[in-house]
Amino acid sequence: MGKLLEVKGLKTQFFTQDGIVNAVNGISYTLNDGETLAIVGESGSGKSVSVLSVMRLIPSPPGKIVAGEVIFEGQDLLQLSESEMRRVRGNRIAMVFQDPMTSLNPVLTIFQQIGEALQLHLGMNKAQAHKRAVELLELVGIPGAENRLHDYPHQFSGGMRQRVMIAMGLSCNPRLLIADEPTTALDVTIQAQIVELVKRLKKEIGMSVIWITHDLGVVAGIAERVIVMYAGGIVEEAEVHELYGNPLHPYTLGLLQSIPRMDRKRKERLDPIEGLPPDLINLPPGCPFAPRCKYRIDRCTEERPELREVAPGHKIACWVDVREGMVS
Q1: Cα(159)–Cα(142) distance, integer angstroms
Q2: For a Cys-Cys bond, which of 39, 94, 262, 275 suits 174, CB 3.0-4.6 Å?
Q3: Quick one: pLDDT band at residue 116, thresholds 50, 70, 90?
Q4: Where are the beta strands (DSSP E) in the chain?
């Protein structure tokens, strides 16, 4: 299985009146061909900014990618011109956003929005684009696809709008689909349908997927590998079964302990993570999670741990072994 995407030392900052916001702090990871990678973390952890950086969609000003490489199919996306990058977006890499109502243009029909990408990237004429757009809507499970093609976004339900966004993303058969919290605004049953849809389409098309979410419950059903982010950095990375069965970072452990469990009766209360995430303008000198961590030692507040491999395919950025409560 070859590498499709390799992110090296990616660092993104926002220059504001209050100071420099360190949104992404030198993260590195790889994505293999045909793999689904989940990136999880609470709001403000940097997960969405990290993939927007990969897509070169950071608003400038105030944002700027200040360091790193994003190697996609052997090409550093950060070195491409804007016109070259436009040929990558929507063609080789597609992105589905959290709220389809703000991503879809309310005054254009669904066909106008899907057809634009087909005509721009694939050089189709209007008749070819129309035929392909019908196929795409049928592929994502929209009934009466041909009749719905000339409807406007407000005529679709939330779940159907998200299916339209996925159809737009798949229109050019991308190698990589980035889904940025695509189920957050949907109810639970529709969430499950969207997850199953993406899993099915991934197999049919053979693409890779990066799934951004704060919901660890969704991750278990879709991803092969998981990256956990906190305060702009990666704190743990592992295969999904390893992460759930053997979480080694206190933050990951806290996330898992705060999830309601339906597979057994619980008499005890859920165990929340106390405190708040750090100020990204004034990050603490040591581990950014240390003020909220019940396992912390003196070293945690003085020195920031680097991400290191502690088992095959399992990496953490922590000075403490949570299994033993001892320094590792």
Answers
A1: 10
A2: 94
A3: confident
A4: 3-16, 19-32, 36-40, 63-72, 75-76, 93-96, 176-180, 208-213, 225-230, 233-239, 308-311, 314-316, 320-321, 326-327
Closest CA to 113 of 168, 160, 155, 166: 168
pLDDT top residue among 103 and 256: 256
Burial readout 286-313 (b: 16 or more C-beta within 10 A, e: otherwise): bbbbbbbbebbeeebeeebbebeeeeee
Q: Map residue 139 onto helix, strand or coil.
A: helix
| Sequence-distant (≥ 6) Cβ neighbours of residue 152 within 8 angstroms | 106, 107, 108, 109, 110
In this structure, the dihedral spanned by the alpha carbons of residues 61, 63, 64 and 68, taken in order and rounded to 10 degrees, is -170
Do 255 and 43 meet the contact criterion of CB atoms below 8 Å apart?
A: no
Contact 166, 139 (CB under 8 A): no
The alpha carbon of 29 is separated from its chain's Cα centroid by a whole number of angstroms, namely 13
Q: How many Cβ atoms from other residues are within 10 Å of residue 206's Cβ?
A: 11
- Tokens read off for 87: 């040929």
Query: What span, in angstroms and rounded, lies between the C-alpha atoms of 315 and 238?
Result: 6
| CA 193 distance to own-chain centroid | 18
Residue 316 structure tokens: 């953490």
Taking the whole predicted model, whether its pTM rises above 0.85 is answered as yes
What tokens does 148 get?
Answer: 């719905």
Buried b (16+ CB within 10 A) or exposed e, 236-248: bbbebebbeeebb
Pairing of strands 36-40, 208-213: parallel
Q: How confident is the model at residue 326 (pLDDT cuts 50, 70, 90)?
A: very low
**pLDDT greater than 90 at residue 32:** yes
CA trace torsion 317, 279, 223, 69 (10° rounding): -70
CA-based R_g, the chain, Å? 21
240 within 8 A of 250, measured Cβ to Cβ: no
3-state class (DSSP) for residue 234:
strand
